[in-house]
Design brief:
- The chain contains 1 helix and 5 strands; from the N terminus they run E-E-E-H-E-E.
- It has one domain.
- Strand 1 (3-5) and strand 2 (8-12) form a beta hairpin.
- It starts with a strand and ends in a 9-residue tail after the last strand.
- The longest helix has 14 residues, at 39-52.
- The protein is an alpha+beta fold and 78 residues long.
- It has one helix at residues 39-52; strands at 3-5, 8-12, 20-25, 57-62, 65-69.
- Bound molecules: zinc ion.
- Residues 2-70 form the DUF7848 domain.
- This is DUF7848 domain-containing protein.
- Pfam families: DUF7848 (PF25232).
Length: 78
């Protein structure tokens, strides 16, 4: 993903680490811990559903972005 606004460029942060996946129950306040794959948070949902009967969940993916001045870049047409 690359977004441009005025003289700034927004792109994935190469130093931000991998995406972090997490899920939370929409019925109560319990939430999974963050993980670097979807699998663990999804297993948490199924275990939570089996334990509580709660069936609704919110899934979030956290990614890291970095803004850089375009004047510092030499690639691409203006
Ligand atoms: Zn719940």
């Amino acid at each position: 993903m690359v977004s441009r606004f005025a003289d700034w460029l927004l792109s994935p942060d190469p130093y931000g680490g991998p995406p972090i996946y997490a899920t939370e129950c929409t019925t109560c306040d319990e939430a999974s811990s963050g993980a670097e794959s979807r699998e663990d948070p999804e297993v948490w949902c199924l275990r939570h559903a089996a334990r509580t009967g709660h069936t609704g969940f919110r899934s979030t993916v956290t990614t890291f972005l970095r803004a850089t001045p375009r004047s510092g870049l030499s690639s691409g047409p203006a």
